[in-house]
Specification:
The complex is a heterodimer of chains A (160) and B (237). With 160 residues, chain A is mainly α. Chain A contains eight helices and no strands. Chain A starts with a helix and ends with a helix. Chain B is extended and about 75 Å long. Classes of the chains: A mainly alpha (160), B mainly alpha (237).
Chain lengths: 160, 237
């Protein structure tokens, strides 16, 4: 658990205890509402987590590395952005991976595109986002994030 | 049972894929389960606290405060508060969904929600430190600046594209010309029965709907009951 997760637990825990002392009924009532909302999501989330496992089996990091380091920068950038949108690999795997290919002399443009879509665009979470925030919101946010990632990578390629 | 399966279509599909994979290629299936392990652990660490947090926001954070700081007229200041909220958070993007949904219910603007969601996903202090370590502080810093700018612009654009009505809310759908009574809110004051005895009756200290379908000529009257109900337990479609 990183420090931020621990901090979140501590703060929320203290707040919860105070809340229970101050007004137990109100706290329990809002927990009931929350439970309903989370109940609607939990099936989806479990599906997402197991889907990530599948994706990682069929698109393992060393294949991603090949695409990122490809010599055709434009194609590499687009493919990297797409791969980043589909997969969800943890930051402690992604940064060393990208770092190693940039050190090998590959262009940073696909690397930035990959890193940015990796977190900002969620192919696997799209369904859940659609369910909770509506189709229009999910499409707008994910497609704009994809475009933003490409723009960021090009600008960074130009100035670095 | 069928209802439940339908609701969890996605999970059912993924389970089926696993089932097929187990038969055709057991090694790959086992590897996939192992790969998922890390993410499941991550979820177990974050979702209980997110659950508590949303309950507490629901219970204690006043609507007025959210509207003031994150609402439609909060402007650039609202975006910065959202950015900060998203950045100091923990956990993957789906952990942000319940929190954002609750804030939205309390009057946060679409633009604020987009900024919180995106910042929650992309900007994390431990992640920035990791990035600086492997790709250099300059790389990290420049990417951070551009990401932040893009997120705020995206919030602005999306708030123009997506309206509040486009977002599904928890509220149950009410059919046209019918009455929905939330019994758990009812205090049994009897006002509805007094105003419109043909539709409402109080039994065991709770109101009861006698006839769910409203005729055209009574619609105005029942609407008035909806507005007068002190517990806001009556909804008219």
């Amino acid at each position: 658990m990183d420090i931020f997760t621990i901090a979140l637990w501590v703060i929320t825990g203290i707040w919860f205890v105070i809340s229970m002392i101050k007004d137990k009924k109100k706290t329990l009532k809002s927990m009931k509402m929350s439970r309903k909302m989370m109940g609607n999501m939990i099936g989806q989330i479990l599906g997402i987590l197991f889907l990530i496992g599948l994706l990682l089996t069929f698109i393992p990091p060393h294949i991603i590395k090949e695409y990122l380091g490809s010599s055709n920068t434009i194609m590499a950038t687009i493919i990297s952005a797409l791969v980043g949108s589909i997969t969800l690999i943890p930051a402690f795997v992604a940064f060393p991976l990208v770092g190693s290919i940039v050190d090998m002399g590959a262009s940073i443009v696909p690397a930035v595109a990959f890193l940015t879509t990796l977190t900002m665009v969620g192919f696997v979470t799209f369904n859940l986002e659609k369910q909770e925030f509506g189709r229009k919101f999910a499409i707008a946010r994910n497609s704009l994030s994809f475009v933003a990632a490409l723009l960021i990578s090009m600008v960074m390629g130009a100035i670095l | 049972m069928i209802e439940k399966l339908k609701k969890n279509k996605f999970l059912v599909t993924v389970t089926l894929i696993y089932g097929i994979l187990f038969i055709t290629n057991t090694d790959k299936a086992v590897l996939s389960v192992k790969n998922s392990g890390y993410y499941i652990k991550e979820m177990l660490m974050i979702m209980p606290v997110v659950f508590l947090l949303t309950s507490l926001i629901e219970a204690w954070v006043p609507k007025k405060m959210i509207v003031e700081h994150l609402g439609d007229n909060s402007g650039l200041k609202g975006s910065f508060i959202s950015l900060l909220l998203g950045s100091v958070s923990a956990g993957p993007i789906y952990a942000a969904f319940p929190v954002c949904k609750t804030l939205l219910n309390k009057g946060a603007s679409i633009s604020s929600i987009v900024v919180i969601l995106s910042a929650w996903a992309v900007i994390k202090v431990p992640m920035l430190a990791n990035e600086a370590k492997f790709l250099g502080p300059k790389f990290m810093f420049i990417r951070w600046i551009f990401t932040t700018i893009s997120i705020i612009i995206m919030g602005y654009i999306i708030s123009k594209l997506v309206k509040r009505e486009d977002i599904p809310m928890e509220e149950e759908k009410i059919e046209e010309d019918t009455i929905l009574l939330k019994r758990e809110y009812c205090m049994g004051c009897g006002l509805c029965e007094k105003m419109s005895p043909e539709y409402f009756k109080v039994e065991n200290k709770k109101a009861k709907v006698l006839n769910k379908n409203i005729s055209y000529k009574n619609k105005e009257k029942v609407k008035e009951v909806q507005d007068k109900c002190p517990a806001k337990a009556i909804k008219v479609g």
